[in-house]
Amino acid sequence: MSTKLDKKTSDLAAERKIASHKILLENDEMIVTHWVFKPGEQTGWHLHEMDYMPIQLSEGKLMFEFPDGSTKEIDYVPRTASIIKAPLEHNAINTSDMDVIALEIEFKK
Q: pLDDT tens-digit profile of 26-52?
């Protein structure tokens, strides 16, 4: 599971709420998390220590903040996915005016 960086979140992004998320499945091979980001909500700063696959279930936009101060905005397209290699530290923020919904599959092996 990704490591939450609570102090960094409280120092840099305390004004935003954390998006709703629920672990749907966890076993020896993976963790599947369902995320719902209301407009303006964030993941909070965290470090992915395992490769993962986000699956976009809705439209919308997420902006990713990185430790070097750079950002990247992603347009969500339903039914698309990608593979992200670990390690990766970031914070994701819903910058759209609609809910952004995704599944995140973290690979333990």
A: 999 999 999 999 999 999 999 999 999
Q: Provide the residue range defining the domain that includes 36.
A: 3-107
- Residue 59 belongs to a domain with what CATH number? 2.60.120.10
Q: What is the DSSP string of 8-73?
A: HHHHH-TTSPBPEEEEEEE-SSEEEEEEEE-TT-B--SEEE-S-EEEEE-S-EEEEEE-TTS-EEE
Q: 0.85 exceeded by the pTM?
A: yes
Q: Are 77 and 59 in contact (CB under 8 A)?
A: yes
| Nearest Cα to Cα of residue 39 among 60, 66, 12, 24 | 60
What's the total number of domains in the chain? 1
